[in-house]
Amino acid sequence: ISVQDLVEASYNRIKEVDGQVNAFLTLNEEEAIAKAKELDEASEKSQRLFGMPSGIKDNIMTKGLRTTCASQFLDNFNEPLYNATVVEKLNKENTVTIGKLNMDEFAMGSSNENSSYTPTRNPWNTDYVPGGSSGGSAAAVAAGEVLFSLGSDTGGSIRQPAAFCGVVGLKPTYGLVSRFGLVAFASSLDQIGPITRNVEDNARVLEVIAGHDEMDSTSAAVDIPSYTESLTGDVNGLKIAVPKEYLAEGVAPEVKEAVQNALKVYESLGATWEEVSLPHSKYAVATYYLLSSSEASANLARFDGVRYGVRSENADNMIDMFKNSRSEGFGDEVKRRIMLGTFALSSGYYEAYYKKAQKVRTLIKNDFDKIFEDYDVVIGPTTPTPAFKVGENIDDPLTMYANDILTIPVNLAGVPGISLPCGFSEKGLPIGLQIIGKYFDESTVYRAAHAYE
Ligand code: GLN
After folding, report:
1. Which residues pair with residue 242 across a beta bridge?
2. Is 284 in the pocket of ligand 1 (CB under 6 A)?
3. Reported ipTM exceeds the 0.90 cut
4. Pairing of strands 430-436, 191-196
């Protein structure tokens, strides 16, 4: 099969299904076909992801290709001037960018319903949400529109949609993958990661995008091992910790059962598991929304109608221009977070909220450190329930936030986590198994995931 055949197959599939799924915001068809033709003629075809059609979440900068963060504010941001480091790395391996993927506006959401364009639907059943915020990235892979995609995960945004769409999504250790060119939401939590159909593909993509980058001061100077070499199928002796909080009340019985069945598979492969506790995880959602909204309020200050995107026409002085550009450009959820974050950072409240939340974050990190003294991985569900219906939670932000209860602690601690399929609900929707590892130990996470898969 030629690269051109592969890339054309991708666009044909998009034409067939994307009218219902809405995974793509922008297509790159002309450029992609031209690149495919070039690659078919190339004499050197040894790159690791040569010719692979990929989709990129629309908060990752792609030079000359529209990047909107699914926000009306950036609706006219048609010509980004540079590529994110991850995109540069994919280009070096000669992957083909098929287009940019739908998401919750500025990555704030768990259902894609906060996209300011038509929200993405779950390809398994279009009455249901695909998850978020990387819902387009997960749906495009699940619907067979691309072979892999990149998402970003601040509080679960790769793992939760991967779980809802029945695909594999990894949030790397904080600092493993460069954030240069990722539009910042909460800089101390954001990580870019791969979404794929299976664990091996995921490991291959991570091998390419990981690594130190001098353009990101939080990027770690670590050697990148061959993750694919760790896919031995051998988990004999692996020590698994199962936090009791991850199978507690609020987790749907069918989700619990799927995870318990997965643990039986691990037992049959020679691994052992024990119940442990993450005692501070009950504070994780509150901590996360305080910290992430505080960081977001600062990061989103750059959207002022001067430097990027759409400027309000309804203003005759500078202050009104700032105000009206922001009022008209941002959606409700983004405004809610900016207001919460600005409040939490304001003098007089900083000690009571932001500083306290930072202390709780340390306690959550310590919970994980303690478990990892005795165990190799932590296993539980990715989400308390399978995908919910479009419209079901949209008017109830607190229920929506509670959906991230099992993914958020992982971002607060900074450790890596993967979601992979572990069965289906009664309604035929996928259920996700979450495997969490030690800092920079993606190899063990992948080995454990691959052995189960
Ligand atoms: N759903 C969470 C939120 O709304 C996580 C988002 C993310 O990881 N980008 O903040």
Report:
1. 275
2. no
3. yes
4. unpaired
